[in-house]
Backbone:
């Protein structure tokens, strides 16, 4: 295949002039200036006219929850329209493998959804299931919470020596099967019950294998970020593991300060962030005690349906949740229902808990406050509910650009494809990066965007010869119209697809043509490997 008349850009900069790029056998064979000596003159099987668009390395979403959804054509289209050719799953400590996938399907049903084929076989089986079955590549972390569940079940206790050895063995096996690192979700169960000493033991095989410890830090971020970083530094100091902070969203001064502190400590640290202020999570996490949500869903539902138990939660627990992260005392107005599994609450999608409770009162004639409404939707949905979470002090676009332009930043959407009114980050993040950084804030050039969206992730997570447009590199490539690229998804209309990326190639196969799927499925499960392999 010949891609002709392209402006070639990767993190090393833009090559002067226009170029023809020849691809064969899944790799880039040559990059030659148009009209120069040695320009390609043969007859390729396929020619794609870039017409002066930017030819960039395929974007890598370093924090994705599309592990199970990536088989869906609508999800593939949503990602490819942003230029994403690879996602990294197994995030936040809860995933499908190792084990039979049941815990990930159960606890993170409102985040990861359900995997259509995986029913066991560990990381090796999970990755093999992507080979030739989807248009995109999928890499995975080994989720520490899932590992803990496999060995300790729903225990909230510290592990015994034998249990710790069992968990460490599962992590080592998952890394040997191709996982790119270990993830934790320390505000979720069962990760919330693991202390730094336990996590350090699980990170020892990660350090030995050259993987990365990826953490959703404990404590809700924002002004509490220092406490989470303290734990990251304790683990890094004990093991020497490379560390990566998930969705590091706080004021720019906090992010800069904590990154500087990690650098001074000698920790090899990076982070991902998306270009939106609001978050998204399961509703149960910020509003229910972990000691309750670690129990089987049917038990939790029985408790929440019991009037006496509700009264105790209202009196003893709910007064404390105003302090979670940055929600504040007006938390019912900060949480918007994005996915409610129970069909009888379809009407509530897109409403805050405050709005939904007021409407429920009007509809039923029975006074309903936000606490009762939240518990009602959790019971009716068997806990399968997610919410978009606002913060008290939203970042400005200038502040978001300042964070994303930091040298340790890596692109990650935290995209969730479950729900009728999801967070727009799933369908907008990777189109918003260039719009924000290049066109609106002039905080980075196109080479900086390539570093953020591709180059750094490929190196950091051992994704092989990706992340550059160069002879010999794997031909995961995207054509970007620099004047048109933008997200269309918004908080009000979150399902709209991005614009400005119409042609995408995975391993040299055209998977998006003219903005539409070609039906080709050259994607594969990516096993951790050093660049050059």
Residues:
């Amino acid at each position: 295949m010949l891609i002709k008349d392209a402006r070639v850009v990767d993190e090393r900069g833009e090559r002067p002039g226009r170029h023809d790029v020849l691809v064969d056998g899944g790799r880039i064979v040559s990059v030659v200036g148009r009209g120069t000596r040695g320009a390609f003159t043969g007859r390729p099987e396929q020619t794609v006219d870039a017409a002066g668009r930017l030819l960039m390395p395929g974007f890598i979403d370093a924090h994705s929850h599309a592990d199970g959804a990536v088989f869906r054509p609508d999800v593939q289209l949503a990602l490819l329209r942003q230029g994403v050719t690879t996602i990294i799953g197994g995030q936040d400590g809860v995933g499908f493998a190792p084990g039979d996938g049941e815990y990930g399907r159960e606890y993170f049903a409102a985040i990861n959804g359900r995997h259509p084929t995986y029913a066991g076989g560990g990381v090796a089986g999970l990755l093999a299931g992507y080979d030739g079955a989807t248009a995109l590549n999928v890499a995975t972390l080994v989720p520490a919470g899932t590992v803990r569940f496999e060995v300790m079940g729903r225990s909230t206790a510290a592990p015994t020596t034998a249990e710790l050895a069992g968990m460490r063995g599962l992590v080592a096996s998952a890394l040997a099967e191709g996982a790119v690192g270990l993830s934790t979700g320390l505000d979720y169960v069962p990760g919330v019950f693991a202390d730094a000493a336990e996590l350090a033991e699980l990170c020892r095989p990660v350090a030995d294998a050259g993987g990365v410890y990826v953490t959703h830090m404990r404590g809700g971020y924002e002004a509490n970020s220092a406490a989470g970083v303290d734990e990251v530094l304790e683990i890094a100091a004990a093991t020497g593991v490379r560390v990566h902070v998930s969705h590091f969203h706080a004021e720019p001064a906090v992010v800069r300060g904590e990154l500087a502190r990690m650098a001074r400590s000698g920790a090899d640290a990076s982070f991902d962030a998306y270009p939106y202020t609001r978050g998204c999570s399961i509703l149960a996490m910020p509003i229910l005690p972990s000691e309750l949500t670690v129990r089987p869903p049917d038990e939790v539902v029985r408790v929440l349906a019991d009037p006496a138990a509700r009264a105790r939660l209202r009196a003893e627990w709910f007064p404390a949740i105003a302090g979670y992260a940055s929600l504040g005392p007006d938390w019912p107005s900060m949480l918007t229902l994005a996915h409610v599994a129970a069909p009888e609450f379809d009407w509530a999608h897109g409403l805050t808990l405050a709005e939904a409770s007021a409407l429920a009162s009007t509809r039923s004639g029975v006074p309903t406050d936000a606490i009762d409404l939240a518990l009602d939707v959790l019971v009716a949905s068997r806990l399968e509910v997610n919410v978009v979470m606002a913060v008290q002090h939203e970042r400005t676009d200038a502040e978001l650009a300042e964070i994303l332009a930091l040298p340790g930043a890596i692109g990650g959407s935290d995209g969730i494809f479950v729900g009728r009114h999801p967070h727009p980050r799933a369908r907008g993040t990777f189109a918003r990066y260039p719009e924000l950084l290049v066109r609106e804030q002039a905080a980075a050039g196109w080479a900086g965007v390539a570093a953020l969206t591709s180059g750094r992730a490929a190196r950091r997570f051992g994704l092989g010869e990706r992340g550059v447009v160069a002879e010999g590199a794997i031909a995961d490539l995207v054509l970007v119209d620099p004047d048109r690229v933008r997200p269309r998804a918004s908080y009000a209309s979150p399902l709209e697809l991005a614009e400005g990326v119409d042609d995408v190639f995975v391993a040299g196969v055209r998977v998006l043509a003219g903005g539409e799927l070609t039906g080709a499925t050259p994607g594969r499960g990516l096993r951790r490997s050093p660049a050059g392999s």
Notes: The CA atoms of residues 4 and 249 lie 40 Å apart. The longest strand covers residues 2-10. The radius of gyration is 23 Å. The mean pLDDT is 95.
